[in-house]
Each structure stands twice: as structure tokens, then as C-alpha cells.
TrEMBL record:
Keywords: Repeat
Signal sequence bounds: none
Pfam family, one: MORN
Organism: Timema bartmani
Protein's name in the database: Uncharacterized protein
């Protein structure tokens, strides 16, 4: 294994913004992003030896929350992540239907309206 790190340290730990590179028999992994106490934490980007790329949030040194995994062929998995698993896939919608277009729908929406008094 060959490993290199360029970035911030705190009390001998990778901590803050940094770039980490692992090279094992010409299989290169890299991480660019934030570290907390030697682990990936916050926003970052990992590139994998086979050409994949993950960009998103990390917690506890694992993918966590919103992120995009781009496969070597360009296809993307977009959604919420928990470790290596895509928990919920997000989909792009063409348009959002208008709310309250009919009289009945407007009356139904009025139930959820709250007036907030404003003082000058």
C-alpha cells in the first residue's frame, strides 16, 4: 500500500479539509473532502479504481444522506445513501401540479392556512 495525505491535522489526526490517496498495485482510490478525527465526515468526493465516482455527504467514515454515484459508463444513482446502500432514489419530475385549481380544492387548502399577526 502507498498512501498520501495533503491537508489539515488536529492532534495527530486527519481533521478538516484534505486529499487522501490510496494506491495498491495500481488500483487508485482517492478522497477529496472533509475529515473529522481520521474519518470522512461532511461533504466529499471518492473516486474508485474501476472509474466510479461518489460525491456527497459522509458521516462516521461512510456515505450518509444525499449523494450521487456516477458509474464508469456515465449512469448515475442519485438519492439518499446509508453506507454502500442507496436507501431512497430521487427522481426528477417535469412539473409540479398546481394546487387549488378547483373551488373544492381551494376550500380544502384553507383548512391548513394560518394567519400570523404582524406588529409594526
Amino acid at each position: 500500500w502507498r498512501q498520501t495525505y495533503q491537508g489539515a491535522f488536529f492532534q495527530d489526526s486527519l481533521h478538516g479539509r484534505g486529499d487522501y490517496l490510496w494506491d495498491h498495485h495500481n488500483n487508485r482510490w482517492s478522497y477529496e473532502g472533509h475529515f473529522y478525527s481520521d474519518g470522512k465526515e461532511g461533504y466529499g468526493r471518492v473516486s474508485y479504481p474501476e472509474g466510479g465516482l461518489f460525491e456527497g455527504l459522509f458521516a462516521g467514515n461512510r456515505r450518509f444522506g444525499p449523494g450521487v454515484f456516477t458509474q464508469p459508463d456515465g449512469r448515475q444513482d442519485v438519492g439518499l445513501w446509508r453506507g454502500p446502500r442507496l436507501v431512497r432514489l430521487c427522481a426528477v419530475v417535469d412539473g409540479v401540479p398546481r394546487l387549488g385549481t378547483s373551488l373544492e380544492a381551494k376550500v380544502r387548502l384553507l383548512r391548513f392556512r394560518t394567519l400570523v399577526p404582524i406588529k409594526e
